Amino acid sequence: MLNKISNIFIVGIKGVGMANLAQILKGMAKNVSGSDVKEEFITDKWLKKNNIFVTIGFDAHNLPKQTDLVIYSAAHGGGKNAQVHEAKKRGIKVLHQAAYIAELMRGFKTKIAVAGSHGKTTTTALMAYSLIRLNAEPTYLVGSSDFNGYPGGGFGEGKYFVFEADEYAVDPPQDKTVKFRFWQPDIILCPNVDFDHPDVYNDERQVKEEFTEFFKKASKVYLCKDDPISLEIIKLEEIKNYQTFGYDPTSDLAIKNVKFDENGSGFELHSPDENKDYGLFNIALYGEKSVSNAAGAILALIDLGFDPEKIKKAIQGFTGPKRRFEKKAYENDTYLFDDYAHHPSEIEATIKAAKNRFRNRKIIVLFQSHTYSRTAVFLDEFIAKLSLADLSLVGPVFPSAREDPKQFNVNSLDFEKKAKEKNISNIKSFSSVADLLIVLGKNLKKGDVVFTMGAGDVYKLEADIIDLIRKL
After folding, report:
1. pTM, whole model, 2 decimals?
2. How much helix, strand and coil, in percent to the nearest 5, is found in the chain?
3. What is the CATH number of domain 108-315?
4. Where in the chain is the domain with CATH 3.40.1190.10?
5. 326-470: what CATH class?
6. Cα(125)–Cα(152) distance, rounded to whole angstroms?
7. By three-state DSSP, how is residue 291 classified?
8. 445 φ, ψ to 5°?
């Protein structure tokens, strides 16, 4: 199908997944354009760099006459979007993003899916970065605007297609078909499995079922032996061809002798079955989870036939994708970082990584919960994990267009209220960003480490926070 299609229009093209897909298609010499809102996105610079034209708004009349295919996602009304409707009316082929990725990946000999509830963006980016540095010329699709100076999507002439396998649904609430069902990868690398997206999944059991069915499709699966749900899936004995990595010394690739310093993380890898030590690896990332995710990527790369010594050199300069422990400023001996963590497990991993790196500094988190459904389901867990910071300031919930806030009996002020009930005093919550910044200004001291954290637009507070830092 792909060879016969030249003119492709992407609805919601500024979203990272769509913008990165657009860049792959541009690399394949397709004519790509799309539509989105006027608001500036972190992907805008990459779209401009690739001369990909974006129309503002979703007026049906703005759908180009010469269009062979329209691609849409769950954003901006999903299948109910006016431009999607117009395409169907004209008889133009319409595909959901997940279905199109399924078509795209058929053109590659080795298809590598990086799945998992947490850390999959960083792990996908690390796999892509490593393959690029190993001169394998991969095509890759990462759920971030960029990493290490590379765009989040790129077309290569090699045999590898690496993509972030999102466990979300096609077009909720009207279509809760999980994206996994579209894809048939050769290899799956999965650092963890956890209950997230309560607007799609009913409970942990359903999450486990979807991941299990996805794993059964692949020729080889790499799972973390330290992850409880992954272990449960292995014990079902439905997944036959798998290997494990992790801190557990019985893993197929075991991590040992981990050390953190100003340059990142150093760790050694050992294969118990082969009684073989692979020596020291270094990454410019922090935290136990980052090391574990890197071990999974290394195990997959070794299995693909790459020399471990060359892998060591390939991963060395990897600093991670945008909005993942991303340093935004360092002034007056005070740091500002931005992180996408939006699930309790991710918040815990990021705060612990920060404490590993900054052992004698105060950690302040400015958190914005993403979606009312996630806030309602995980409120107690959010509070438990945010309490790990020295101070957590919680702003208004960032809503989803797919949810009606009136259907949820929860808001940002519940964080502090519930925290006090649990005798937790280091969590403060606010109904406005202005109030949050006032309290930050009163508590911020020279030498502190500040994080904006969440999947919403909390990162836009960067300029205000830097201004506060400069006044210290």
Report:
1. 0.86
2. 35, 25, 35
3. 3.40.1190.10
4. 108-315
5. alpha beta
6. 8
7. helix
8. -130, 155
Helix (H, G, I), strand (E, B) or coil at 328: strand
Strands (E), 123-263: 139-147, 150-154, 160-164, 169-171, 175-178, 187-190, 220-224, 242-246, 253-261
Given the DSSP bridges, would you call strands 53-56 and 110-114 parallel, antiparallel or unpaired? unpaired
pLDDT over threshold 70, residue 1: no
According to DSSP, the β-strands at 110-114 and 150-154 are unpaired
What are the two backbone dihedrals, phi and then psi, of residue 211, each rounded to the nearest 5 degrees?
Answer: -65, -40
Q: Using the structure block, give the residue that is written with the tokens 């062979």.
A: 68
* Angstrom distances, CA of residue 168 to CA of 22, 93, 102, 456, 461: 20, 23, 15, 17, 28
pLDDT in tens, 366-378: 999 988 888 988 8
233 vs 102, 177, 205, 307, CA distance in Å?
Answer: 25, 21, 11, 30
pLDDT tops 90 at residue 169: no
CATH annotation of 2-96: 3.40.50.720
Q: Within a 10 A sphere around the Cβ of 258, how many other Cβ atoms?
A: 15
CATH 3.90.190.20 in the chain is located at: 326-470
Three-state DSSP at 33 gives: strand
